[in-house]
Each structure stands twice: as C-alpha cells, then as structure tokens.
C-alpha cells in the first residue's frame, strides 16, 4: 500500500514523540512509524505480577516545581501533555568503599553547598571559584543567545574566559584547576554515568549544565513512570490528528530523483512525505535499504564515533515496604573504586559502579502498600566484554548470576537484607536494548560524548553533519547528547527545523501559525538548551 | 600545590583550548574510514537478542504421538526451507503461540512446551549436551501437547490437519511461569490439572538434565487413571532423580489404591509439602482448578507468602459471570469498529466474548500471545466505548488505564466500541 503524509517520524522514542506532537500541532499531516507495539522507546514500564517497573528513567533534571516550572514541565505543558511530576529533594547518596571511601548525601537547592561542605570539609574556597565559573558560563550563554549564536570572538575571550576553559576541558581538569581535592572531585563527579563518559574525558561545561539542572531545579520524577510521559505525548499526537502505527518497522528509505529522502518503506507498505524525521540512530538508518544513496562523508563521521554506554538493569519487586527494608534513599550511587575512569572501564569481572533506586521513596504508591521496588542500573561500556562466553543457551543463568552478585553487593554495602524479599525479578541487558530498539551493541546512549565528540563539538559542526536532504535526526544519539530531557528537546527542535523548512517552501498545515520561532541557526555557537540531560 | 595533604598535579587550563575544538573534530572525522557503517545486527548483544527473541519461528511438524484424553503431542522442528535454521532457547514452563489460518481468519493459541530446554538446542552444542539417540532432531525441537477442546476451533484444526511435514508459524518461547532461583524456594510443589502437566514435564526434564536446580513434588490431578499423561516418563523420572522429583497422582473421578482421591486441596498440599519451609507452589491447569487453589492455599497450616505462589498464564475466565467484579452488559451484542493498520473492519462482538476472539473470527489480524492479560502483546488503543476487564486479568500499566489502552484478549465490550489495533507481525500461516 502507498500512504502520503506531510511528515513521517521514524520511531516513537522520546524524540520521535516530541517531534510528532509538535508537528501535528502545527497542522501537518504526521505519521509515526514504530516497530514495537508501544510508544516511548526506553521511556517505558512493564508489569510483573502486582508490580509495575520503571524501565529506564532515574530522574529528569530542570523539571522545576508546579509553582515554578522549569524546562521539562514547560516543554510537556507546551506540547499539551498533562503529565505530572513529583520532586526529589536529595541529589543522591554516594557510597564508595575502600580506604579513600565515603558515604555522603548531597541535597539540592539552598542546602546543596551546606551538604557538600559537610561531606567534604575544606572545599569552601574551591566552591566559590566553581560558582564563578558557572556564573561566567551562564553569562556567556546568555550573550551567545543574544547574538543569535554569532558572538564577537574578542568579547568571548575578554569577558568569558572561564566559560571557554570549562567548555574546552574535562570535568576533572577543571575541578583540579579550581583546587578541589580528590575526594571532593569524586563526590562532585558522581553524576558522570548520566552522561556516560568518565570525568577525565567528560566536557566540564556540559556536565555542569546538567548538574546545575539538578542542583537548582531539583530532580523531577513522573508520577506514572516514564511510560506515563510517553502515553501523554502519544495522546497529544492523536488529539492533534496525527497517527501512530505500531508494529511497523521501517526497513528502507525512498529517495526522489534529486537524492532527497521522499519517504520510507515498511515491509510491503510505502509511506511518502515531504519531510522525514528519524528518531532511529544513524547507524541503523545507514543499514537500511537505500543506504548507498546516503552521503559517504557521514559514514566517516559514524565510523569515527564510539558507541555509548549500555546497561544491565535489575528490577526487583520486594514484599516489604522501603522503610521496613531500610531503603531510605531514592538514589544511591555505589562504587568500590573512586576513579571514574576505573568505574567506566569495568570489565564485568569485578563489581562495577552501579546506581540503586527505590522509586517508592519519591513516589510512595509506585507499588502496592507493603511492597517496594528496587532498580539497579549497572553501566556497561562498549568494550566491557560482559557477554564473553554468554550465548542464548546460558543467557538466563547469566542474568540470574549477575543480579545475585549486585543485589548481594548492595545488601553488604548498605548493611540491609533484600534477597529473601524478592517477589518479582526481571533483568534487562544490552541484548534487551538491542532487541527492542535495534541499536548497535545495545547502546542506550547513542554515541559517546567523547572528548572530541561532545555536545559543543557537535554543535559547532552541525551544519556539516548528517544533513541528508529531507531527513532530520532527533534523539539521544543526536547533537544534544544522551539523557532523558534532551531527547524531548531534540524532538521539539527537529520539528521546528522541519516546520520552518516546509514554511519556507510554502507548505504549512492549517494550524502552522501556532509555531512561534524559526529553528536555531545551524551555526549556533553553543547549544541553547543547557539543562535537561539525565538518565 | 597541596590541598588537605594531597599533592595536586598542577593542571594547565587555557581559554585558547576552545579554538581547538572544531579542528580536532574535523581531523578525527577525516581520519576515519569512509566504508559502510558496521551493521547493528553484527554486534554481540544484537545477535544474542536475535537468537533469543526471533519475531516468529517457521516450524515443521516432525512427529505426532497420540496421548490419552484426546490429546496429541506434536514435535516441531525448525523449517529451514522458510528461513528458520534453529529454535530459540527457552526456560522450562514457557509456551509458544501457534498461528492457525482457518477459513481466511487468523487464530493464535498458546501451548506450553513439554520438551526439555536442551532439546531445543542443536544436538551436542548445547550447554547440556545430550546423546544423539535421545536427540533425534539435530537442529533441535519443541514438543507441545494439544488437547481437543470442546468447540475449540484451533485444537480441532490442529488435530485434523497437522501431520508429519505440516508447516506452521509459532512465536518465540514466552511466559513467566519459570523457576527463578533469586525468587523461588529450592523446593517446589507443582500442582498440575489435566493438560496443565505439560510445563511440568519440561521442568522435570530440566531438573534431570541439570538445566534447572530445584526439587519438585508434583501433585498431578486427573479425572481417571487412564487420563494421566506421561505416566511412565514421570514415574521413571522420579525413580532416577535421587529424591529431587516426587509424583503424586490425584484422581477426581476414581478411587484407587496408590492414588489420592478428589480435588487438590490445602490438605493435599500440606500432606506432601516438603519438610523445609517455605516452599514454592507452582500451579498450571484449568481456571476452575486455579480458582479453587486461590481459596485453598490460604488454609494451609503454614500459609505461604504471595511470592511463593505462582500460577501459569491462565487464559480467560471459564465463566466470566462468576468474576467478583463482573459488570453485566446492557445488550447481548455490540458493534466494534476496528482499525488495523491500513484496513478497517466493523465487527460484532458478543457481551460474553472477548474482543480478541471476535476480531479473530472476523478476519482481523490482531496480535496476541498469552491470551491471559499478562503479556501485553495485544496492547490496543481504545478510541471510544466502554468495556469490562476482570481485575484478575488486568495486568496493564497504570498509565494504560488512564490513557485508554486495553488488552483485548481479556476485555469484553460494554458498549459499541472503536479500537485501533496494530497489525500482527507474525505471518498468517
């Protein structure tokens, strides 16, 4: 069958849903083609017995409160979503064992500094310096925005030197230069896994733009899991007259005579449109039928890149309440080695760094009364080799053994008992990410934000990369990097690009007047959406 | 520089570094090969996922065997002629969903696999290699036992048409009725009713071959002695299991020496329960048996926590009117408009019939797997209308209920309705 639309969105992940919501709101005839039978991609949940487990989201940053909404709440409200969030006061508890270990809890908002000084006495002077760097960064970004992404270079150099340093050095180097001792650096670097690059490589400015979203705005957690966010966006698309086709896997691209993407193939069906948005990772698009017509310069880019982190996720439903079990923190980061490089490069032979979340601490009714859930996330770096010796036949045993090891480690580290209370357990691995999202190597973070391929670097060169005519990418693999919030903003930005391109060609839907501003200039110096990167 | 006694490596940071960002990027990209991007499917997690969870499996009937009680056991092997070269591994207790095209309509039914996990693997390459003599199909096999159900369209069709050489389509193995050492006790009391013995046959074999590690006391309920399936095998397994497997037969319609008589009650369970407490109870069989167990198990002298009681996917209620939250319909039949990909249907659904059942017999190619409400494979957008979904079969996510999504396999119409149902990915036959 042949179908015609204004815009096709491939993939109903966060980026695809946000894009389709915005596009359909602009009155464009929009269809989302999703290979799975649910919207959301990783923003999903699943049911085992009487438990519904959050599949991926820890927390969104820059959510703000109901009274003072910030980026994420505004984004959802702007798309017409009725999604609700709760706020979590603590940033995290971080436990590192060993001789240089610590067990400290950082708070958000006004109490952040106090909690940091309590955790790391003597860091006051360096904090003052860090605040200057962050203030200078804000001012630089404001100046850049005011200049529409074309700032005067001399002004940047004279006034915003601290910003330029933070924007072009690793997190660890910047913290060192500010005089933070190792313990304080490690504590401050705790969130590294949310961006998937160790602190000696992770871009300092990017990290702080994210961390600031937590420190200032406080973490936000959706009341109906990330799947609730996905359904709320799907709902806006349907209400706007858009369409979502599930169980529909795009297998090929269709080009017109000028080499422009004119549509896609899904099995025996053909969908044609004026513009196509791909929430699917470029690696998968470059493996589709028709790939020979994609630009070879982009193959170089994709071959140069490293694939991002994947995860093993352990979901346990426990038949005791969080309080009874001694699970008093929403997020606990655990490591047995304080070096973030060592944490990143864990080969799976020893216990690696992990995050343990108890959703009930933030959303008490997340599971039935008298029960709670535990969600352990273990980062798996691309070359970890955790699947060495694992095949389809022993995969179940691998999952079981892996989970036992990590749950037992968490029990020991916190001095609590969990194993006897497991009523339901489920485990996701890189193979699970590969199964549901088709992503290469099961990456959950798209492309690694390596030293050379950070958000700033991507932004500076965005007009030269992956600019396939008629095809716009959005999602965690795109310019703004991985993290939950940025995938939504990347979808909105992709939609704005498409709408303005169609408007320039004289095509607009009946409601296109609702689109407020043109897409960001392609040579924007710095990503505008500072906040909202998280895991 | 020294801070808190720690000597800090002097670190040089410079604003001019900013000017290097773009050139470094360009250099890095220029140096990379312009060859085709590595195919996602070639990475280990992706190939592992593909062998664990194929979208569907083309299979061929290699063998049929008549069993007591109008039951036939079929051996299914991969159908290489249609591109399936091996079977997905499974855990004892899982099922496959069989696709049957009857008079142009597509029906799907789950059947527990009753062979052993290692038998699904290619001969000798598995984790638990078995001799070729007991593994007659080198590419692996599944066995399912199909009991002829009264008025059961699919079981009738299978009994009538399946023979050696018949080609069919099945799902990858699915289902949560499996042993999990992190959750379950090391002693399990298995309660089987009738053809519900099939998942336990797989567990018994898994214990013997070493692919599962637990002890199983099987209480197997049948009407008469002559209805017992796999009797010799089960007795043989118990005899050579070094005490890990015990089998007790419970006959409801006959009183005989060496057999328990009646239905399986709390008393029966308590009598044969292992000494070690807590133990797990696994149950598979007709809904009536599971319902009765729901009343019986709390009466155990030492009741079990919820986590220790697990039921197999139980299908739709045998008599939906007896569900405690039953909502009576206002009419006998309702009209349901169905969007199914590019196609549209207008069908009739009886008040006591599930939406999935009505769609199947009306030619809608609707996806389904467990037909028990728990797998979510038939996830469907409700556009309009009201419905009744028994709480006992409602395993939806909270947001599904809020935003109007249903599982048609266990949903009954309570008004005229409109649905948007994704097209099943599994081929029709």
Folded structure, characterized:
- The complex is a heterodimer of chains A (535) and B (429).
- Chain A is built from 20 helices and 18 strands.
- With 535 residues, chain A is an alpha/beta fold.
- In chain A, strands 1, 2, 9, 10, 11, 12 and 18 form a 7-stranded mixed β-sheet that branches. A 7-stranded mixed β-sheet of chain A has the order 7-6-14-15-16-13-17.
- In chain A, helix 1 packs parallel to helix 20 (484-504) and helix 4 crosses helix 6.
- Chain B is α/β, with parallel strands linked by helices.
- Chain B folds into 3 domains: 49-170, Elongation Factor Tu (Ef-tu), domain 3, CATH 2.40.30; 187-311, Nucleotide-binding domain of ferredoxin-NADP reductase (FNR) module (Rossmann fold, 3-Layer(aba) Sandwich); 333-420, Roll (Ubiquitin-like (UB roll)).
- Chain B contains 9 helices and 21 strands.
- In chain B, strand 10, helix 5 (231-239) and strand 11 (245-251) form a beta-alpha-beta unit.
- Chain B is globular, with a radius of gyration of 26 Å.
- Chain B starts with a strand and ends in a 9-residue tail after the last strand.
- The model of chain B has no long low-confidence stretch (mean pLDDT 94).
- Chains A and B meet through strand 3, helix 6, helix 7, helix 11 and helix 12 of A and helix 1, helix 2 and helix 9 of B.
Topology:
The complex is a heterodimer of chains A (535) and B (429).
Chain A: E1 2-10, H1 14-25, E2 30-33, E3 45-48, E4 51-54, H2 71-78, E5 85-88, E6 90-96, E7 102-107, H3 112-119, H4 124-146, H5 153-159, H6 161-167, H7 171-177, H8 182-188, H9 192-195, H10 204-217, E8 219-222, H11 225-239, E9 243-245, E10 252-255, E11 261-266, E12 269-278, H12 282-285, H13 296-304, E13 310-318, H14 322-325, E14 331-335, H15 340-344, E15 354-357, H16 359-362, E16 372-380, H17 395-414, E17 422-428, H18 430-437, H19 455-460, E18 471-473, H20 484-504
Helix pairs in contact in A: 1-11, 1-20, 4-6, 7-10
Chain B: E1 2-3, E2 6-7, H1 21-31, H2 44-52, E3 57-67, E4 71-78, E5 95-102, E6 105-112, E7 142-147, H3 153-161, E8 167-170, E9 187-193, H4 197-209, E10 215-222, H5 231-239, E11 245-251, E12 260-261, H6 266-272, E13 280-284, H7 287-296, E14 309-311, E15 333-340, E16 343-350, H8 355-361, E17 380-384, E18 387-388, H9 398-403, E19 405-406, E20 412-413, E21 417-420
Parallel strand pairs in B: 9-10, 9-13, 10-11, 11-12, 13-14, 15-21
Antiparallel strand pairs in B: 1-2, 3-4, 3-8, 4-7, 5-6, 5-8, 15-16, 17-19, 17-21, 18-20
